[in-house]
Structure formats: C-alpha cells, structure tokens
Write a structure and sequence with these properties.
The protein is an all-alpha fold. It has one domain. Helix content is about 80%, strand content about 0%. The chain contains ten helices and no strands. Helix 3 runs antiparallel to helix 4 and helix 4 runs antiparallel to helix 5. It is globular, with a radius of gyration of 23 Å.
C-alpha cells in the first residue's frame, strides 16, 4: 500500500488541472460590453484587491503562530508541524483566491448567457464557475494532506504523522476565520452604509450601481460567500480527514501497547491494518474527486433539460458512484465493508436534501 500513497497528491494535481480547463472555458464565454462589463470589472478588481489585502494580514498572523508552534510543541515534530501549518494556510488561501477569481468572472457571463442563450446555457456557465471552486478545494486538500502523509507516514516520523498533519488543519482554520468573518463584516458594513447614504441621503434606489457603496457590497458578498464559504469548506474537508487519521493512529497505538487487538477484530478491523486505516480517508477522497468530475460531466450533458433535474442528476449520480467506489476501495485495501456502509449512510443523508432543489439565480451586478 505504501507505493500507492503518492497517488493522492497526483490526483489532486490532476483535479487542479481539470479546474484550470473549466476556468478557461468559463473565461471564453461572452463577458458583455458597455455598462454591464464596466460594473463587473469593478466588482472583480475590488474583490481581488480585498483578497490580496487580507492575505497580507493573514501572513503576519501565520508567521507568528508558526513560530509559537515550533517553540512550544513537542520538539520531535514541532518544526514539521509548523511547516504543515504554513502549507495549510497557503493551500486554503490559494483555493479561495482561485474561487474568487472564477466567481467574479462567471457572474457577468451567467447573466449574459441567460439573456442571450437561455436557461440551459446560463446553468452551464454558473455550474462550471462553481465547479472550479469545488474542484480546487478538493484538489488542494488532496495535494496538501496527500503530500504530508506520503512524506511522513513511512519515514522516521511515522508515529507522529497525525500530529504533523494537525498543523495543516490549523492553517486551514486560520484562513477560514479571516475570510469568513472578515468578508462577512465587510459586506454588512458596506450594505448598511450603501443603504444609509444611497437611499436615505441621496435618494438613489437600492443596489443602484451609481452608489459606490453598492459595488463594495457586491465585493463583500463575493468575499464572504465565495472565498469565505470555500475556505470554511476546505477547513471542514481537511479537518474531517485528519480527525479520522488521528483516530486510526490512536487505535493502532493502543493495540501495540496493550495487545487488545481482539476488540478491534470483532469490528472487522485487524491490528496490522492501522496504517491502512490511516490512509483510508485519503483513499476515499481521492476516488471521491473522480466521482465529482463525473458528476460535473453529468450536469453538462443534462444541461438542456430543466435546470433542477440536471443538478439533481449530477448530485445524486455522483453520490451513487462514490458509494460504489467506497466498497471497491475497501475491498482493494483488504478492509471490512463497515467504512463503506458508513459512507453509504452519509451519502444518503446528504443527497436527500437534493431530492427537490430549487434554483434561485443570484447575480452580483
């Protein structure tokens, strides 16, 4: 199984390349002209400037926290955990940056597509724009966690791989805090300010682009709902995997110390499978990325149908593929089907909310 660990970061790189291809497809769409293009460009530049400024502030905090980690954590792995922390900050920030760039480009193109070509074309543009963010989040997670696991799970620091990877989750959490909270505060301040000055003092209608505060409000909406949400999902995505890896590592350590392997064997888990169990969440998310790509293709193929039906087919279809893939993955790794049944339960619960979705077009213009 050791030789397969490198497949996870490689899959992440492939996913990132696919996201790049989709982004290029979105950018090629008609971006409009005249006032529409002018307003969209202002929102795009404002959002990117906000991201750059916030990244500079996050960098200062990240350096301080990384230094504290390297000083106060266990000397056996403190340096590596600090490096993983910085790695987590960079991965989450890059995912948010790419997602923000894509969203602010896709917004206006969705509007133009809806006006000129209809709902099917608008769905493709909007869905592809969102897919870039989703694929980037998943891919950066696989690259970060996969690289750390490949580097440390089989080396001299094998016993501390879970602690080292926890640094990555801490970095992702720091970025999520800044982007989510900072973007939310910014958009609310801009929204209230635009209403007070525009509607009450100047008599300008709400959300009128002549009011500069409205542009700031739309910038904040993108920061909070795209970069903030993306970094929040990234933190949860990575944190859940690291928590599972830590549980498997702790179970393996307990077995080696007190010989209570029979407790785990009754659950279908053998004592000598501890390392394999630690890699299992990464293996599942690796095949999950492939299932997500297939789901995106499904939506594209069904885009000519009613939008809600296309999204439903893509969501449920990818979930079904992932359930099947989880059973195959567990079998290939020589594990019990119990983790696959847990995946099945989670997928059914998550997909049930998509059984009757409603589509509400929201374009930040």
């Amino acid at each position: 199984m050791t030789n397969n660990y490198i497949l996870t970061p490689i899959a992440g790189l492939i996913g990132l390349a696919i996201a790049g291809v989709i982004l290029r497809t979105v950018i090629k769409k008609d971006g409009g002209e005249g006032k529409v293009a002018e307003i969209a460009e202002k929102i795009h530049k404002g959002a990117m400037m906000f991201m750059k400024r916030e990244f500079m502030l996050i960098s200062l905090f990240a350096v301080v926290i990384a230094t504290l980690i390297s000083v106060f954590q266990n000397p056996e792995y403190a340096t590596y955990q600090a490096i993983a922390f910085i790695f987590g900050c960079l991965a989450s920030s890059l995912a948010g940056f790419i997602g923000m760039y894509t969203a602010t480009k896709a917004n206006v193109r969705t509007t133009i597509a809806a006006k000129n070509e209809g709902a099917a074309s608008a769905l493709s543009v909007a869905f592809f724009g969102g897919s870039v963010m989703g694929l980037t989040v998943a891919s950066m997670g696989l690259i970060g966690l996969g690289t750390l696991f490949w580097a440390f799970a089989t080396g001299d620091h094998k016993i501390h791989v879970a602690e080292i990877m926890e640094g990555f989750a801490m970095g992702a959490s720091l970025v999520a805090l800044f982007y989510r909270v900072g973007g939310g505060i910014f958009t609310k301040a801009a929204d209230v300010g635009a209403d007070l000055v525009g509607k009450l003092e100047a008599g300008i209608p709400e959300d009128d682009p002549r009011n500069p505060g409205v542009i700031a409000d739309n910038v904040g909406d993108n920061v909070g709902d795209v970069a903030g949400m993306g970094s929040d999902i990234f933190e949860s995505y990575c944190g859940a995997q690291i928590a599972t890896i830590a549980i498997a590592a702790a179970a393996g350590a307990r077995i080696s110390q007190n010989g209570s392997a029979e407790l785990f064997e009754k659950a279908g888990i053998l004592a000598d499978k501890a390392e394999t169990l630690m890699y299992l969440p990464l293996a599942l998310t690796t095949v999950g990325l492939l299932c997500s790509v297939l789901g995106i293709i499904m939506v594209k193929l069904m885009a000519a149908k009613e939008p809600a039906a296309a999204l439903r087919i893509g969501t449920i279809g990818s979930a079904i593929l992932f359930i099947i893939a989880s059973f195959i993955t567990c079998a290939q790794m020589g594990l019990s089907n119990n983790p696959a049944f847990a995946v099945f339960a989670g997928a059914v619960g998550g997909s049930s909310s998509a059984s009757s979705p409603s589509i509400t077009p929201v374009v930040n213009l």
